[in-house]
Fold each of these.
Amino acid sequence: MSAPDLFVVCKNCQAEVSPYITECPYCGQRLRKRAPKIERPDAPSKPPKRAPRGRTRVRRADKPPKAPRLGRLRTGEIPGIRGDEHGKPWATIVLLALSLGLWLALAFVTLKAVAIGALDIEPWFYLTASLVNDGTAAQFATAVGLGLFGWLIERRNGPIVVVLLFLLCGPGALAIAVALDPGTLVFGTHGAALGFLCAWLVPVALARHKGRLDDDADLLGVLVIAAVLLLIPAISQGHVLSGVIGGALGALAGLLLAVLKPAR
């Protein structure tokens, strides 16, 4: 029986190390999968294992550790790069810019010129009426609701959902309000802002109820914003019904989003 080597040389740092270790203590290089077995002089020798017929067993060198792999890609991502969930919400920014731009452009125009009082009007009137508000306070409050909850929805569901949700809870809510109460002039962004709030709140509330979400979102502050948006018609010439309908449509959309992509 041949005596074991007193040391081996690490291929990475060329240091002399013990032959009974698996990793180099100087550089951490992997030397072998497992430490060599120490033969005892009184132990009976075992016959070498024979490979099955027709097969040649080839010993492979130690494989390098596999590189970590990313999970499944999200919408808008490319291989090797994770999307930034805190990126710019372009759809929400465009909606806020349109609302502020129209409000400034129509500052010297009476709101009756853009308000909706009947269903048989041009389609673009619905979009215009859902972007303007009466007074600075109403414009600021709806901009906060639209921007905050639009950004949260866009971060989780993407810009297309934000645009569709605005069309549903803004122009759509105004059209339903006119159909239910014909002859009344309706306008304002509070319906779209309430729709965004409810569409974000419903999946979060359901996820918390089922124990899937543990975040620090202040739901009491969300309810305060909702109360302010509901009171906007009291301080301006908006219509209460359009805000309630916008919030209800947003809640239904939130239930759909909770099924398609639950909050985590």
Note: The helical segments are 90-105, 123-129, 136-157, 159-169, 171-180, 190-209, 219-235, 240-260.
Amino acid sequence: MEKDKPRMIEHWEVKHSIFIGGHEILFAEDERNTVDSYFVGDCSYDNPFGVAEYSNCIGTTDYLEAVSEYTQRIQTQIQQVRQERADRGIGDEPLSTEHCLPGGLGENIAGKLVVIKPGIMHRDRRTADYQYFFADGGNGCRAEAIGSAVFGQNLYTGKRARWERADMLGIADLAKLPEWAKDRLKSLQAEKQTDNHPKKKTDIER
């Protein structure tokens, strides 16, 4: 069986990587390069095409300098994630089926708050602020549809995203929502009603 090809960034081979705080931190090396043997950089996929975008990249021949830079970036992101959780008042435990209505996803989920499966998310994002998702469109909203894409918004940030119906753990049990989620949901539903409200005749272009 042929081994998987190593991940390359130009001529550097990625040896270590970790995804935390919204982006990936990479450590790569090229032992044949006598100018920049080691590479440390950040990588994100936050674009419409999901293409890797590298930033804050450095190259060095000093192994200890590269390792120090790599570990410092990880520590910085750890502190950032901890501070975000503290500011949001959100615990470390992921949402489970206990936070969903019984019966699964056997109905149309358009206009409903759903819970994303924690197992498909990066480990630092397996928390309620990333799992609660308001579905508002896409063929995947219908259980019988051929298409599976579900479009909507993250409940906490309001950022739009696309998931697959198979990524959904279930429909959220509104009786078990934390207070911040109840407030966000009310605001989001009010926005949707405003957007869908018919214009008055005086507002319609003539």
Note: Residues 63-88 form the longest helix (26 residues).
Amino acid sequence: MRYFPKIIGERLYLSPVNPDDAELYTKWINDREVSLWLGLHANVTSLAKERQILDGMAAGDGHNFAMVLRDGDRLLGNISLMGRNPVDRTAELGIFIGEAEDREKGYGAEAIRLLLGFGFNTLGLHNIMLHVNAENARAMACYKKCGFREYGRRREALFRDGRFVDRVCMDILDREFMGK
């Protein structure tokens, strides 16, 4: 089996990252649409480099998960909690879905809710934040749907296609997610 369901949802599950998926991740990370929203559009990522990154993720650096469709065990993308601070009980969320045809189907929202539940209920986090390109309306709508709120904006902090774009800061507290 390539994947090991750790957190199971209705249509997908979160599994430890599999370094054997390096070729697919390399394709995605070098796709302009994916890399633009991740802030990696100026990078060129080789297969060797992506293998190294996935090996690091699989070795336990943070809480990094493959998002896998339950029907057919097909890899959709990646979701992570990074920069976890156990004293302040904070972390940062990162997510991407690799294939364009898998976007706008609710997979991202389901994966985010699964990871928020893990972060708040299992890891005991209090605040989970993220950053998003202000022009990524699809992502911002998804984050709001999951309970994230905008708490700030760094003006013209991202350089995209010859112009500057705002970076939006969003977060969610455990009581907002759990309805306390």
Note: Residues 21 and 97 are 14 Å apart (CA to CA).
